[in-house]
Amino acid sequence: MSRSLVGLDPARTLDPAPYMLGGRAPRLALRPASAEEAGEALRAATRDGLAVVPWGGGSKLARGSAPTRYDLALDLSGLDRVVEYDPEDLTLTAQCGVRLEALREIVSARGQELPLESAHAARATLGGVLATNDSGPRRLRLGSPRDRILGARFALADGTLARSGGKVVKNVAGFAIQRLLCGSRGGLAVVLEASLKLLPAPETRVALVHEVTREGLGDAQRWAFLPWLEPSYVTVLGAEAAEGRVPRSGAAERFTVVIGLEDDAVWVAEQERRVAAALGEPATRLTGSDAASLPQSLADASDAGTSSVTFTTAHNTPAALAPLATRAEASRLVFHAPAGRLHWFPSAADATALVLDCFGLGFTPIATAGGATYQPAIAPEVGLLDLRRRLRAALDPTGTLALGDV
Length: 406
Description:
By secondary structure, the protein is α+β, with helices and mostly antiparallel strands. It has 15 helices and 18 strands. An eight-stranded antiparallel β-sheet has the order 14-11-13-12-16-17-15-18, with helices on both faces. The mean pLDDT is 89.
């Protein structure tokens, strides 16, 4: 691969084979060592008519479908430096290739919380989580990445390096392009560096694990108190989804409901009292490090299948699953109730029927992975599609960023 083709030293080139999408490898793969090198690679790709896919840890991309064109994998894992950390101001700026697990360790040592969640935190990168606007069971409490980002440095498709927002709250102004890039999947620009607002870690963490029957799941009155209690998370798992991730001893037809309480000690104790009054004593009670690690296990459970469909919904209690609980695939569901996110892992053959049934009950599909596809398509509104096209035309008129077409 010559310098004239990609604009970088050949030492930055990689074997393209590990960067397959939908069974197809790109022609080329590069790992730039700086933001400037990433910009130069994009500039050369635009010049040479190459379609580019940015890569982080690959935890989301690996099960994605192949774009229409795919010539160059731009591996950003070499941009893995923490640029600035101000514990007093609860802010952190890091390059996009930093792994979530590494960031979590840095801030937890200072009694602070990284307000980002994603499956496979040891692999998932800051840039990947921002690009997918990914979240976990505590989405309602922590917000999505779009809610937590203060500023970003990014590269446009033509290699231009730009900034938006700031590193502290008081400096955040302008058009908030950094938020626009969250969820764009690298199809509008490539995020190279981001500043985040952190949170203080809670004083007390407790996780209550309840096992319920299908009938108990559908008792709406039983769960009505939960939104008013404002737990950190409430996650329902089918038997297969819970296996090996959450302590359980119930029969295969039972569902596991995990209620996470994270606050000051007095309020957590009161929350526990109210949960016990409504649901009875839990099958398992976790505290300390066991409770602290459980949200990651639940996030991992949300991305555990080879094929999956993710839904969003306004329903926010376990009772919303009652009409779906008798389906054979219910053993493989994960529902983060307050966050309004249902993750399901059907076979490819069952995906269409499942999606249509869920859609009729107020669950709207927002993402698929692996072999899960569905027909007829439940598409975004025409106005939203038109807005996407206009943004795409303005930021990447040559179509260099391949995922903008997916």
